[in-house]
Amino acid sequence: MEYRDILFEISDNVATIKLNRPEVGNAWSKDTPTEVMDAISCCADNDEVRAIVITGSGKHFCAGGDINRFKRLIDTKQYLEIPSILRAGEMGKAIRRCLKPVIAMINGAAAGAGCSIAMACDFRVMTPSSKLVMAFINVGLSGDTGGLYYLQKLVGTAIAGDLMMRGRPVTGEQAEKYGLVNVLAEEGKLEESTYAFANKMANAPTFALARQKDLINRFFYTDLDAYTELEAKYMQECSETKDFEEAVNSFLEKRTPVFQGK
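Structure (tokenized):
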């Protein structure tokens, strides 16, 4: 398919999927999940591809949902719809279930659903100044794209709950302590370190890697489908609340939100 929200290329057995809306921090449109899933599918079916890197154009990895789109939904009383939320969840599952090594190269910030994408990957490469933030709660939302699910698998319920419910940013150094980072690159060497790692994975016995991933997914991610469905329901419910409206308006108005819990 023709891509508008992403850039896709293959070089030396490594595919790169680059979110390409830098003017909005690579926040995605309604079409972005479809494009990412198509690129992942192309990688899965192409024997030339032995590893995949996901990253963002410009300063940031991905800001997640587009706050201006949220504002339009609120003003028109449309809110978030379950099919579109599920589509984001399907994107996360496509990344997770791809049987080739998937590496998140986290430039700048990975926020909200952008952070969820990074958590769905097999590996994460950051610099000390890179940031992860499960920012959903900051805009009055419960979360989507499987973020809490993938995060819990990586760090356990206590830390995952803390990061989700407090919505606080985590630097590369802090993420390394939590076990969220596989490679902490030096500042200015993120791309160099990521592709060195990707090339190493591409030259590994990828048939065996695929079998390992299949075992992990079959036995340790067994309730992912059920989670994704309930996640979408809760996300939709949150989008109809006064708190969501207040969070979006206060962000755009550059003021502190006042939440009512409803």
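Residues 6-187 form a domain with the 2-enoyl-CoA Hydratase; Chain A, domain 1 fold (CATH 3.90.226.10). The chain has a mean pLDDT of 96.
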